[in-house]
């Protein structure tokens, strides 16, 4: 009766004798895990831990790295106006960009779920993500050039402007000195002396590009004798290519200027007569009452051509850089939110529709709350990303506007390597950037851990 238990106990003891102790098994498991983790730990130490520790240490020394300054670089950093500009711009980025990109991504994801050509729509919106930040910066800098011959945005604005308000015929023209005419601050050119009805007023002009003279222009000619109720005269380009001719006098092939508006202004300042110059530059203002008038060429004849908006100037350059970032990252937000939509229980939406809810109510009460975990992850990821933004801010603004568009990462590079050669101050800026980014990274890690546990 005791044979079976004894045999079983003997077999169990034999197996236990061949199995290593639990402590040895635990130690072997730890060694195996360390062997697999070692390459990653080495890389993290070299690429993450060491740069952080070295930057903190380097921020305590001067530019040469020989004299210990303590917190001197931090004091310098927070008394430098450029640092406050960089911090201000980073705040603008954090306030504007994550919200804009998340909302656009949500709208695109919902639209993609509704339209028939959703795949093509997703491809179009996501395509900018395939472009590097530097290449995207070059694209936007070219597109937003102020010169409409180079920048496509201003070229479009100029085309629209000219369709409704054509440019002046002779921009930047000015009068011949000592010719009895002057130019006001407004740009209008007027006769110095009052002109009686039946008199004549001539306007020799300079500083007109030969390309702005119409091909239909003829050689300037003296105006016909004025009638008693007229004022006549000639408007011409008082310049001959290659030189020659007498200043302030017609002849020698000097071109008349057609299409110039000429006004007769009475003593009260009212315009009482108008005329437009012919191909030879002559004009005749008719139906004037007896009296004296000031003959004026309005400023509209000479206003500089509209060239668009200074997009890359100090005022708007940050907006252009932010627009380029939104253009690139809206596709990322769309894909992330679309993945959340695809995992959503659609029966809840259908039940709300059956209960009479419209699409806006379904979106606000069902879709958006269910997507909130994804939206928060996208939002925080974008905050971390924009705090570290460098490429677009460095590439898009011209040198004259970079100080107004700078952010902490660009300021750090400029101080350290872009001419400042002060790695101590640059390291202090790097530590400031780390302190700003770290809380959002911790929030993101905790959210990922919470979602994994659920």
Description:
The chain is α+β, with helices and mostly antiparallel strands and 454 residues long. It folds into two domains: 229 residues, Orthogonal Bundle (MetI-like fold), CATH 1.10.3720; 128 residues, no CATH class. Helix content is 53%, strand content 9%. The protein has 14 helices and ten strands. The strands form two sheets. Strands 2, 3, 4, 7, 8 and 10 form a six-stranded antiparallel β-sheet that branches. The protein has a four-stranded mixed β-sheet with strand order 1-5-6-9, with no helix packed on it. A hairpin with a 5-residue loop joins strand 2 and strand 3. The longest helix has 37 residues. The radius of gyration is 38 Å and the shape is elongated. The mean pLDDT is 86.
Task: Please give the share of residues in helix.
Answer: 40-55%
Termini separation comes to 53 Å
* CATH T-level topology of the largest domain: MetI-like fold
Biggest sheet layout: 6 strands, antiparallel
Question: What number is the mean pLDDT?
Answer: 86
According to CATH, what is the class of the largest domain? Mainly Alpha
The number of helical runs is 14
Let me know the number of strands: 10
CATH superfamily of the largest domain: MetI-like
Radius of gyration: 38 Å
Order of helices and strands: HHHHHHHEEEEEEEEEEHHHHHHH
CATH architecture of the largest domain: Orthogonal Bundle
Q: Regions with pLDDT < 50 over 5+ consecutive residues?
A: none
Topology record:
Blueprint: H1 3-18, H2 22-58, H3 72-77, H4 81-114, H5 118-126, H6 133-143, H7 152-164, E1 174-175, E2 181-183, E3 189-191, E4 195-196, E5 203-206, E6 231-237, E7 261-265, E8 271-276, E9 282-285, E10 292-297, H8 317-342, H9 346-354, H10 359-387, H11 391-395, H12 402-405, H13 408-416, H14 423-453
Parallel strand pairs: 5-6
Antiparallel strand pairs: 1-5, 2-3, 3-10, 4-10, 6-9, 7-8, 7-10
């Amino acid at each position: 009766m005791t044979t079976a238990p004894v045999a079983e106990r003997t077999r169990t003891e034999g197996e236990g004798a061949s199995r290593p102790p639990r402590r040895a098994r635990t130690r072997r498991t730890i060694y195996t895990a360390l062997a697999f983790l070692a390459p990653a730990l080495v890389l993290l130490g070299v690429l993450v831990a060491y740069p952080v520790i070295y930057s903190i240490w380097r921020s305590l020394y001067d530019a040469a790295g020989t004299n210990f300054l303590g917190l001197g670089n931090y004091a310098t950093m927070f008394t430098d106006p450029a640092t406050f500009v960089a911090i201000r711009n980073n705040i603008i980025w954090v306030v504007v960009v994550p919200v804009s990109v998340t909302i656009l991504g949500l709208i695109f994801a919902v639209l993609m779920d509704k339209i028939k050509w959703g795949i093509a729509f997703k491809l179009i919106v996501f395509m900018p993500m395939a472009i590097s930040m530097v290449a995207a910066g070059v694209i936007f800098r070219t597109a937003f050039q102020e010169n409409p011959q180079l920048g496509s945005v201003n070229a479009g604005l100029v085309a629209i402007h000219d369709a409704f308000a054509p440019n002046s015929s002779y921009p930047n023209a000015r009068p011949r000195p000592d010719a009895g005419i002057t130019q006001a601050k407004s740009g209008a050119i007027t006769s110095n002396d009052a002109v009686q009805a039946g008199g004549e007023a001539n306007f020799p002009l300079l500083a007109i590009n030969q390309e702005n003279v119409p091909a239909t222009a003829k050689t300037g000619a003296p105006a016909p004798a004025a009638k008693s109720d007229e004022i006549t005269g000639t408007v011409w380009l008082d310049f001959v290519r290659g030189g020659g001719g007498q200043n302030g006098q017609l002849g020698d092939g000097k071109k008349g200027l057609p299409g110039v508006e000429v006004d007769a202004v009475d003593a009260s300042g009212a315009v009482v007569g108008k005329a437009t110059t012919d191909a030879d530059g002559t004009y005749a203002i008719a139906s004037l009452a007896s009296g004296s008038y000031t003959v004026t060429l309005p400023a509209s004849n000479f206003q500089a051509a509209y060239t668009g908006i200074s997009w890359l100037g100090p005022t708007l350059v940050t907006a252009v850089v932010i627009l380029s970032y939104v253009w690139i990252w809206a596709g990322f937000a769309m894909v992330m939110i679309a993945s959340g939509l695809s995992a959503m229980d659609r029966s809840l939406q259908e039940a709300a529709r059956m209960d009479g809810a419209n699409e806006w109510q379904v979106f606000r009460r069902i879709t958006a709350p269910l997507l909130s975990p994804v939206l928060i992850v996208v939002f925080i990821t974008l905050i971390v990303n924009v705090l570290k933004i460098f490429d677009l801010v460095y590439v898009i603004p011209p040198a004259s506007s970079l100080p107004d568009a700078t952010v902490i990462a660009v300021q750090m590079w400029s101080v350290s390597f872009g001419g400042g050669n002060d790695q101590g101050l640059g390291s202090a800026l790097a530590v400031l950037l780390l302190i700003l980014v770290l809380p959002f990274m911790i929030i993101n890690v905790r959210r990922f851990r919470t979602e994994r546990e659920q």
